[in-house]
Amino acid sequence: MDQGEQPKADAGPLVFFDLESTGTSPATDRIVSIAFVSESGEVLLNQTVNPEQPIPPGASEIHGISDADVADAPRFAEIAAQVQGLIEDVVLGGYNSRNFDAPLLDAELRRAGQPGIDLSTVQEVDVFRVWLAIEPRTLVGAVRHFLGRELEGAHDALHDARATAEVLQALAAKHGLGRAELLELSRPPWEVDRAGKFRRDEESGQVVFGFGKLRGQPVAEHQEYLQWMLTKDFPPGTKAVIRDLLGEAS
Fold it and tell me: Does residue 250 have a pLDDT over 70?
């Protein structure tokens, strides 16, 4: 399909899927649970999977699946052919699936000797992206969502500042958020640098890469990559973190 060509609307039935996994890296983590349902809600597959590697406690806390839960479950390779059949000639539906679920499923299928997913041409409906498009996470979208009106004078500093204050008041009231919760949500505990190039692993406490081919890997094991990053166009705050990390390792 040419880069500018739009997907065909009649590509096939819409099938929704979701994965639970050992972590957040499509390249290195494994599936521990997989489900497919039709557009009418019919269950097409609902299966726990033995990932053939330990499930980190942090992941278990999120999805509630432990090593014991999957000890007798089939390996993904045992159901790969069935899964491959479910995704043929359909439109895949998911939530934030273009970023995570589809790449992870493709990796698992290919490891199992299946054709996998052609990520460049697969027909997808990502509900998260649709939501962002309909209600953009911009100040204009926030005013419309929380205040029920259009933002007047958008991109005027004074109007935007006042609208931001109103949106926060409405958001905090709706969800019962106090000052402490607002501060915590604005700077999550895993944050290392503002750009998100690094993050702190919740289980080990180690600083790991938050992007690229080394996503999820400890920075301590890749000092040469940190040195390379210092020569590239990364934000000053990220480079300050890199210098601190290199200083700790020396």
Answer: no
Q: Count how many domains the chain has.
A: 3
Q: Which residues contact 49 (CB under 8 A, 6 or more apart)?
A: 30, 31, 32, 33, 34, 70, 73, 74, 75, 76, 79
Does residue 249 have a pLDDT over 80? no
In a domain, 191, yes or no: no
Shared domain for 180 and 218, answered yes or no, is no
Q: In which domain, by residue range, is 161 found?
A: 135-186
- Report which residue type is found at 227: Q
pLDDT of residue 181: 92
Arithmetic mean of pLDDT, 118-125: 92
The CA distances from residue 63 to 104, 109, 126, 142, in Å, are 17, 22, 21, 30
Residue 162 inside a domain? The answer is: yes
Residue 211 lies in a domain: yes
Strand order in the sheet with 14-21: 43-48, 31-38, 14-21, 91-94, 124-126
Phi, psi values for residue 149, rounded to 5°: -150, 170
pLDDT above 90 coverage of the chain, percent: 73
Note the pLDDT of residue 11: 64
Domain end: 144, 161, 186, which one?
A: 186
Write down which residue in 107, 129, 151 finishes a domain: 129
Residue 175 located in a structural domain: yes
Three-state DSSP class for 137?
A: coil
Direct distance between the N- and C-terminal alpha carbons of the chain, in angstroms, rounded to an integer: 50
What is the C-alpha to C-alpha distance for residues 157 and 249, in angstroms, rounded to an integer? 44
Indicate whether 227 and 120 sit together in one domain: no
What mean pLDDT comes out for the span 96-120?
Answer: 94
